[in-house]
Amino acid sequence: MSGVIAKYHCNYCQEDITGVRVKCAECPDFDLCLQCFSCGAEMGAHKNRHGYQLIDCGNFPIFGAPCNWKAKEELVLLEAIEQYGFGNWEDVSQCLPSRSCEEVQEHYNNHYIVGNIGRATWSTEVSTQIKDHTVPDGGPLSPSLSSPVAPVDITPSEQQELGYMPCRDDYEREYDNEAESLISQLSVGGPEEDELETALKLAQVDMYSRRLRERMRRKGLVRDYRLLEQFCHAGRPKASPVGARSKRNLREADRELQEKMRIFCQFQSAAEHEQLLENLEREKS
What we know:
Blueprint: E1 8-9, E2 16-17, E3 20-24, E4 31-32, H1 34-38, E5 52-56, H2 71-84, H3 89-94, H4 101-113, H5 116-121, H6 156-162, E6 164-165, E7 170-171, H7 195-224, H8 227-234, H9 252-261, H10 270-284
Antiparallel strand pairs: 1-2, 3-4, 3-5, 6-7
Pfam families: Myb_DNA-binding, TADA2A-like_3rd, ZZ_ADA2
Keywords: Metal-binding, Nucleus, Transcription, Transcription regulation, Transferase, Zinc, Zinc-finger
Organism: Amblyomma parvum
């Protein structure tokens, strides 16, 4: 924390001045400690008859009682918080050997957050002008907030085996998991970057967006058709049917129809595909 508090030396005895110093009013940059001043020390152009000023080197308190923090400690505290960040009290207290971590935290909160300085600095008004910038289906990175994720009926062991995180509706290993490598090394170009380099970077971003949209499309299909549950239930001793249609009593012709129409699942939601199959079966009958 060097440079926070100016260190003064007695020009006569060359010792550090830790308390009150005597500054000569006539000689530039000339300071004496109290002991040398009381002895009438003279040196070079400085004479003991020169005018002087008594200056306290930060040993006076800024805040009133019962606070016993000196001004130089306040400077060290503010400089340390600026360097290490608010809340890193262990690191901040290392710059104040005479103060504990709890003392540093309590002093700063009481005088700079809750005290007069805090009241004059921090506004108590909470802004209510909150604008929702998300758009439903606005892109792969801005899914709709109005459609919460439906719970998935699989056990914790099955979640771990599949690498699926139900609370986030996410997977440990995504489809096209290396897609981010396209943009991981991109950097914002400076004024020396030409149009060709900019166009190449934009093309890489566009390629990444396309791959990301495909990833989100596949995740949407898995969620909409509840494929995770069907996959897990198929391996259980007593598999329960998922969805409105049960395959238990399907005729062979119906199974063939479902297999033929499965390719259209990627273009329809689960409800739309279910309705399509029902309409086709009704038309056949």
